[in-house]
């Protein structure tokens, strides 16, 4: 077989196997090695809701896709160039995501009669049955080679077989000419307390690499030159880690200790886990008995003067609704993070969606407007969380930060920012007042924010609560007082528009079609719009980070285009919202509610259809 | 400067029904505050009163301290957040039988399990008052209310038993009209490190009048209740002639002087005993077989949640390699693009 080294700009690799096969780790290590090598990357973990679904079945297949390139990479890619499938079920579930030219690496040891039947194939020839004969199929005896490699390692048979993902990773490192140092370092660190596991893991990785080089079955190997990135120090970061760190950054800049009250929920849990590590930065986390306790402990902490946050996903966000109203009427700073997942109810908890926008905007009793901010990429979660914290504390109000499972779990290289480039956060804390007794709901003229008088401050004793009150803090159900307070609270949120950045446009500011998006679809919409622009089409992108209030220039941006198409991973929630806020425009829509990200081609097709 | 109860009265008009037991509790708490400040060297601005929803939960408005009137059932968690955020505050939760034991039951037991250093005053009138007369989790089996017109078919909670079940470290009981007793218990509660729960039997004059009257009526109170004091023999009765002894695994009421019983034979109250066995028996005592137990029934030492948090933060920060955001951002695997 002719061996070809393909110098390419972009390669998509998809690792798939049983949820116990370690594919998430394999994918992550491969992505990290590529990023450190200098490629731009974007990752997308796609796993089942069950921790260990029945082995060998399609429902138990876990996948991790990574797109690596020498140019700008904004999405994990639609279809893959290389598919690794550790068993027949993984092949069955993922063959549809391979390009016609793809290479498919299979663990031939799992392709026995039992495995093929379990995966639900009708014949004993899965390749023909899936009609993928023309792909470059590589049957590698990964399980038996791993056993052979580690037979003298002293490990028990179970542990040996668990290492087959490292053998697979070795094959991929050969195919893509990746350096292995970063993975060696990872193994040394991970097993520093179980030193007997370091050498076997390194060996099996190396053996996989050598095996790939020896068999000559791998027709193509790839080189992907390092991307031309701006100078600086980089790291990989996923969205949940970036969210946690953005919140910590807001804590540092405000001088307010961070308090996070939360309850574990997929796919938001790792924010709580990340914050729990950060006692070194004086962050306190309280894993509560439920979601309501999560937000209510945060509200108590905010009253006592901490920068309070609670983190959750859709169903948990529903449980917090009543308390969100309490935070709103007591006018306390609070950031509520909703890492959206497929709903309603438990829905498809490990899959991504943008279906909680309506809930964020409207899901409370009474007149209860709350600011909504959305993150648009894994690393942008850092800035989004930072500014959510800044606005919450400076404007004395809760702020909802929407991210998505796709962002929370996805990762990308990130040029590490310097904290000196971030603004200070100045919450309106007071230590004395001119009124006696103190008026807790007196406002400043610019933001309409009330003052933050912390318990423990002499002379500022006051009561807050869920009952309607007059500005002096006394309970009131006077009709006019209520109407005025409702209006003041709404105006306070509306005035945030004076502080957020104006909406920017990617591409020409005038044109035929404006693609409008928000949140985690940015990478796909951006790539699609760039593609259309390169074909000379007059298409631009306006991607919204600030949902409520909308940027002040929104109508100015919209009016310069003949057509507007709103693309989102729901049935049209942002489009409906825009229809209500800016009725003078006609909005086309492209919607998808499959628990999966967009693919670039469908956006391109949708835009072409109205051009 | 010693505070007076007046210092703790807010300018808000007290809006409970005339004759409601809550007035007496408010007075007791306001009288206890100067004692607490003196005993623990506290100043007024360190007090935070947190409540949920219900008649009793209006309480924070009447205290001239920091206060938070929360939402139904969530007072324990709001109070927990306040305490964890600033452990130097002294946090008091005001709650009722519906607020703490129905809608807020989960938060209530978890606050106790964590042993967070807050003081919980549980106003138990065995009825929903603010919604005008529905049965509560402490209403007696068979009680007729608006939502149980044929009598309830539910067994009530005994709050003290629930607290022991959650490994509570402090439980006391009082009666609304026993102002001095409540005042003394408040001081004991403040001195206790950990979740301190005081159940106060309250009369709701409108919807559940005289619910506790059989034990709380003035003429019978001394014979039908026993005020427990740590280190003292368990004596009660108008004539101080009755006592409690242990008979096998059970408690028995005896008359001093009869059948050769002397004061020396009586049980001596040990609130600080960790084993909850006898505390459980005392908490369960019901009229007419027994007097009901008042006073500090249990007060044992254990690590508090807020102490553990503080110790952990100090420990981690002492050995920390990361001291600020810039260091965190550069921690782990990084690479340079030149």
Explain this structure.
With 611 residues, chain A is α/β, with parallel strands linked by helices. Chain A has 3 domains: 4-223, Pyruvate-ferredoxin oxidoreductase, PFOR, domain III (Pyruvate-ferredoxin Oxidoreductase, domain 3); 236-421, Rossmann fold, CATH 3.40.50; 511-610, Rossmann fold (3-Layer(aba) Sandwich). In chain A, strand 20, helix 19 and strand 21 (539-544) form a beta-alpha-beta unit. In chain A, helix 1 (23-37) packs across helix 8, helix 10 packs across helix 11 and helix 12 (291-303) packs parallel to helix 14 (321-330). In chain B, the strands form 2 sheets. An 8-stranded mixed β-sheet of chain B has the order 2-1-3-4-6-5-11-7, sandwiched between helices. A 3-stranded antiparallel β-sheet of chain B has the order 8-9-10. Chain B has 11 helices and 12 strands. Chain B has a single domain, classed as Thiamin diphosphate (ThDP)-binding fold, Pyr/PP domains (Rossmann fold, 3-Layer(aba) Sandwich), CATH 3.40.50. With 338 residues, chain B is α/β, with parallel strands linked by helices. The mean pLDDT of chain B is 96. In chain B, helix 6 links the parallel strand 5 (170-175) and strand 6 (196-201). At the A-B interface, helix 1, helix 8, strand 9, helix 10 and helix 12 of A face strand 2, helix 2, helix 4, helix 10 and helix 11 of B. Strand 9 of chain A pairs antiparallel with strand 12 (334-337) of chain B, so a sheet runs across the interface.
User: What's the architecture of chain B, going by CATH?
Assistant: 3-Layer(aba) Sandwich
CATH topology group of the largest domain in chain A: Pyruvate-ferredoxin Oxidoreductase, domain 3
CATH architecture of the largest domain in chain A: 3-Layer(aba) Sandwich
Major sheet attributes of chain B:
8 strands, mixed
Number of beta strands of chain B = 12
Strand adjacency order, main sheet of chain A: 11-10-12-13-15-14-22
The overall average pLDDT of chain B, rounded, is 96
- Class of chain B, according to the CATH hierarchy? Alpha Beta
Question: Helix amount of chain B, in percent?
Answer: 25-40%
From the N-terminal CA to the C-terminal CA of chain A, the straight-line distance is 47 Å
What is the domain tally of chain B? Answer: 1
Helix content of chain A: 25-40%
Superfamily (CATH H level) name of chain B: Thiamin diphosphate (ThDP)-binding fold, Pyr/PP domains
Largest sheet strand order of chain B: 2-1-3-4-6-5-11-7
């Amino acid at each position: 077989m002719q061996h070809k080294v393909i110098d390419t700009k972009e390669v998509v690799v998809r690792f798939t196997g049983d949820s116990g096969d370690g594919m998430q780790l394999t994918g992550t290590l491969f992505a990290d090695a590529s990023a450190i090598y200098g490629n731009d990357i974007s990752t997308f973990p796609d796993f089942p809701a069950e921790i260990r679904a029945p082995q060998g079945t399609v429902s138990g297949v876990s996948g991790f896709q990574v797109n690596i390139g020498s140019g700008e990479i904004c999405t994990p890619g639609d279809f893959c160039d290389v598919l690794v499938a550790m068993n027949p079920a993984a092949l069955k579930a993922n063959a549809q995501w391979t390009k016609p030219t793809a290479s498919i690496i299979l663990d031939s040891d799992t392709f026995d009669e039992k495995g093929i039947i379990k995966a639900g194939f009708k014949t004993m020839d899965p390749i023909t049955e899936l009609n993928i004969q023309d792909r470059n199929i590589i049957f590698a005896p990964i399980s038996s080679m791993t056993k052979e490699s580690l037979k003298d390692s002293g490990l028990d048979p179970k542990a040996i077989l668990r290492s087959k993902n490292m053998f697979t990773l070795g094959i991929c490192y050969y195919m893509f000419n990746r350096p292995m140092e970063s993975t060696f370092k990872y193994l040394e660190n991970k097993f520093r307390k179980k030193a007997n596991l370091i050498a076997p893991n390194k060996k099996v990785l190396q053996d996989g690499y050598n095996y790939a080089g020896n068999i000559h079955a791998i027709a193509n190997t790839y080189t992907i030159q390092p991307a031309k990135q701006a100078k600086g120090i980089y790291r990989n970061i996923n969205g949940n880690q970036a969210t946690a760190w953005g919140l910590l950054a807001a804590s540092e800049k405000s001088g307010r200790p961070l308090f996070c009250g939360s309850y574990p929920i997929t796919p938001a849990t790792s924010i709580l886990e990340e914050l729990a590590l950060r006692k070194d930065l004086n962050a306190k986390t309280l894993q509560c008995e439920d979601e309501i306790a999560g937000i209510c402990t945060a509200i108590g902490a905010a009253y006592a003067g901490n920068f309070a946050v609670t983190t959750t996903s859709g169903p948990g966000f529903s449980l917090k609704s009543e308390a969100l109203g309490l935070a709103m009427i007591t006018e306390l700073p609070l950031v509520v993070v909703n890492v959206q997942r497929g709903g309603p109810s438990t829905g498809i908890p490990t899959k991504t969606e943008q279906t909680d926008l309506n809930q964020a905007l409207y899901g409370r009793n009474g007149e209860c407007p709350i600011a909504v901010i959305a993150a648009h990429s894994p690393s942008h979660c850092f800035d989004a969380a930072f500014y959510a914290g800044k606005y919450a504390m400076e404007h004395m109000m809760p702020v909802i930060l929407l991210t998505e499972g796709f962002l929370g779990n996805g990762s990308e290289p990130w040029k590490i920012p310097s904290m000196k480039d971030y603004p200070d956060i100045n919450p309106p804390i007071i230590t004395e007042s001119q009124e006696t007794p103190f008026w807790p709901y007196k406002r400043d003229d610019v933001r309409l924010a009330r003052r933050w008088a912390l318990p423990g401050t002499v002379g500022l004793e006051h009561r807050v609560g869920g009952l309607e009150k007059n500005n002096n803090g006394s309970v009131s159900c006077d009709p006019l007082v209520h109407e005025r307070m409702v209006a003041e609270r709404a105006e306070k949120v509306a005035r945030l528009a004076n502080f957020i950045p104006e909406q920017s446009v990617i591409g020409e500011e005038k044109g035929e079609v404006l693609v409008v998006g928000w949140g985690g679809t940015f990478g796909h919409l951006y790539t699609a719009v760039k593609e259309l622009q390169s074909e000379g089409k007059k298409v631009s992108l306006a991607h919204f980070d600030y949902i409520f209030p909308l940027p002040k220039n929104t109508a100015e941006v919209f009016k310069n285009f003949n057509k507007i198409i709103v693309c989102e991973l729901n049935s049209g929630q942002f489009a409906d919202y825009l229809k209500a806020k800016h009725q003078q425009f006609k909005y086309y829509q492209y919607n998808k509610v499959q628990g999966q990200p967009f693919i670039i081609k469908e956006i391109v097709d949708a835009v072409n259809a109205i051009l | 400067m010693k505070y007076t109860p007046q210092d703790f009265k807010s300018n808000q008009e007290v809006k409970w029904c005339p004759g409601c037991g809550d007035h007496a509790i408010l007075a007791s708490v306001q009288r206890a505050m100067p004692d607490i400040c003196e005993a623990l060297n506290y100043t007024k601005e360190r007090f935070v009163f947190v409540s949920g929803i219900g008649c009793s939960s209006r309480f924070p408005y009447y205290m001239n301290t920091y206060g938070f009137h929360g939402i139904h059932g969530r007072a324990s968690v709001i109070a927990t957040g306040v305490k964890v955020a600033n452990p130097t505050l002294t946090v008091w939760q005001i709650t009722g039988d519906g607020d703490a034991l129905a809608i807020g039951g989960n938060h209530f037991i978890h606050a106790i399990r964590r042993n967070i250093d807050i003081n919980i005053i549980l106003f138990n009138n065995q009825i929903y008052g603010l919604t005008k007369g529905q049965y509560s989790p402490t209403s007696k089996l068979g009680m007729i209310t608006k939502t149980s017109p044929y009598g309830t078919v539910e067994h009530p909670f005994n709050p003290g038993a629930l607290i022991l079940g959650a490994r509570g470290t402090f439980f006391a009981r009082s009666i609304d009209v026993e102002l001095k007793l409540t005042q003394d218990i408040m001081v004991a509660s403040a001195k206790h490190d950990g979740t301190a729960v005081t159940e106060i039997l309250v009369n709701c004059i409108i919807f559940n009048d005289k619910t506790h009257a059989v034990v709380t009526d003035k003429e019978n109170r001394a014979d039908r209740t026993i005020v427990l004091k740590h280190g003292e023999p368990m004596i009660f009765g108008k004539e101080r002639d009755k006592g409690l002894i242990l008979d096998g695994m059970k408690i028995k009421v005896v008359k001093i002087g009869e059948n050769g019983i002397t004061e020396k034979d009586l049980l001596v109250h040990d609130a600080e005993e960790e084993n909850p066995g006898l505390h459980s028996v005392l908490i369960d005592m019901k009229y007419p077989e027994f007097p009901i137990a008042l006073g500090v029934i249990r007060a044992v030492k254990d690590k508090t949640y807020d102490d553990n948090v503080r110790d952990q933060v100090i420990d981690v920060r002492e050995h920390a390699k990361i001291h600020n955001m810039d260091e965190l951002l550069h921690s782990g695997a990084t690479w340079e693009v030149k």
